[in-house]
Amino acid sequence: MKNHYRTTISISLAYLFLCLFITYVSSQSLIRQITDDVNTNLKEEEPYVQKHQEISSRHYNVSHSKTVTGMRNRRPSTYSYKIETNVVDKFETRPFTVGGYNWILHVYLNGNTKDGGAGYVSLYVEIDKSGFVDSAHQEVYADLRFYIFNRNERKYFTIQDTDVWRFDAFNTMWGFSKVLPVDTFKDPKNGYLYNGEHCEFGVDVIVPIPFEESETFSISSSSDKYTWTIQNFSTLFKDVYSPVISLGGKKWILLVAPDGSGSGRGKYVSMFLQLYTNQRRAYEYIYVRTMFRVLNQQKLSNREGELRNWYGRTYIWGIVDLISFDDLRDSSKGFLVDDTLMVEVQLEAISTTKYFP
To answer: Where is the MATH domain positioned along the sequence (predicted)?
Structure first.
């Protein structure tokens, strides 16, 4: 009986130790799991620190075909930035105002590596987006031109894009990651670094203002023509003028010079088309394609000539050698019949310019 009791106690103690061991192991696993979860959550809940946008010609897809470089004498017209040390790699200027917005010039002497600019000088311009009235939708377009002064040539190396750059709340910085190789820039013999560590950068920022005035030019064909019968032609010695006529929506006067004009004087009959008064604005030019004809009254071939001219400061155009006196006086040719001459002017095309406003 006593042995059975000791055996029962031994079994109970062993079972108790087994339970305690299992509980301990489970608790350690649970603690590790909770700790891991806490650590994971801590990593996930780390506060987000907004990093400065190290921007990006990448986003703009600047291609070599759109990039224009060269040397120019004229200094920057918007902002100049002189540096007297190259110990620091990255610089940014104070804000400067253009087009009602604040801008900052960023200079990377050893290149913006985050934009693929390693080994090059990188230059960017940043807009202060707090100036946007409606930051979600507002856009600002700007022409950018960057400068690096060359002391040897007394000129500025310039780089620009043929397109304008679009700035908005999500794209606040644009520029070039590869402006000039660092080796070229830092070699004093090339003239970009002078007086030890001095150098000069610049930028032009131009914010285009949408146009308020415009004009549209067009040319339309026409079949308008005017036929003029001139009697007793051989008795005329001075220029003769037709009545005011309407062709292509404008008023004109046809002029015939029986004795010729200019280089045709004394040898040819000359004919001109004159724009009547108040038919154009003071600054307007009207393009006209005109056919002048001396009609053959025997139904043979007409004598004709075409002119294409701009009516503006010069308001009369014509042909000085339209038909010779010899052909006119030869009755067999059919141009002068019963001392009557028939001429015609046809307006084949005329321009129209619409001005806004």
So the answer is: 76-205, 223-347
